[in-house]
Amino acid sequence: MAYAPCSLCLRRYTGKASSFYPAVAAGRDFLRCKLRLCPPCAAHFLADRMRNFRRVDPDDSLRFLLADSCASCAAEVQGDANAAFVTVYLPGEERVDYFALAHGACAAELARQLCVT
Ligand SMILES: [Zn+2]
Ligand SMILES: [Zn+2]
Fold first, then answer.
1. Distance from the CA of 37 to the center of ligand 1, in angstroms?
2. In angstroms, rounded to a whole number, what is the distance separating the alpha carbons of residues 65 and 52?
3. Ligand 1 center from residue 2 Cα (angstroms)
4. pTM value?
5. Cα–Cα distances in angstroms (integers) from residue 33 to residues 2, 93, 115, in the given order
6. pLDDT digit string, tens, across residues 38-48
7. What's the 19 CA to ligand 1 centre distance in angstroms?
8. CB neighbours of 58 closer than 8 A, spacing ≥ 6?
9. Closest among 41, 33, 32 to 2, alpha carbons compared
């Protein structure tokens, strides 16, 4: 039973919260926030707001350097890109890290999308 309202829908809910820790690079800093989401919002957040994020596997760190799709506008990102990370704790599961890239011009929009502004 959760006592705090969901960070996204702001409703109180039954069931276990999931924790999301988004961080979006902005210049030399990271914009960060902490979300506690109810089960439907956690599913929505993963499937929709994080649709261009990829799960980070410990063995494929070099792939971060390859071209990828912008997590905000979905166009290809090459060269100057901002990194974004989301650490996710679903109820009863191990920590999972997700990674994405965003155009410099899209970083602010991505931060709004992940509600870290
Ligand atoms: Zn919710
Ligand atoms: Zn973009």
1. 5
2. 16
3. 11
4. 0.86
5. 19, 21, 7
6. 999 999 999 99
7. 12
8. none
9. 41
